[in-house]
Every structure is written in C-alpha cells, then in structure tokens.
Specification:
The chain has about 70 residues and is an all-alpha fold. The chain has two helices and no strands. The protein is elongated, with a radius of gyration of 15 Å.
C-alpha cells in the first residue's frame, strides 16, 4: 500500500492528480483499550488521537496541501 501513491503520482501527476497515503501507528480507540502500550516502539512516545489523523486527511485532501 505504501508504494501505491508513488505509482499514482508518477502516472497521473502530469494531469494534476495528487496521491497521498496515511499510515498511523497506535491511535487511541476501543481497539487498544486495556492494552499496555508502554513497551511498544511508538513515535513521540505517545498514543495518537483520532482527531490528529482526521485533521491530516482533511488537510491532504484540500487545495492548501498542494
């Protein structure tokens, strides 16, 4: 999945098509409730918030990101 946007950019970039991918690590959700995340290799040593991912996706989808 991580290579797919690269292929889109190389094939469709000339037509003004943008491609991004978002690969969050550990995000606070019901899925991780009760799991000890202390020993995990987490960037910034904290669990991410769903709003952080959604804000990033909204930004990348906007004209402001180009």
């Amino acid at each position: 999945m991580r290579k797919r946007p690269e292929r889109f950019r190389s094939g469709l970039g000339g037509f003004g098509v943008r491609a991004n991918s978002v690969h969050p690590r550990v995000i606070r959700s019901r899925m991780i409730d009760g799991i000890d995340v202390e020993g995990l290799n987490i960037p910034l040593d904290r669990v991410g918030e769903p709003e952080e991912v959604s804000n990033l996706v909204v930004f990348l989808s906007s004209d402001a990101s180009s």
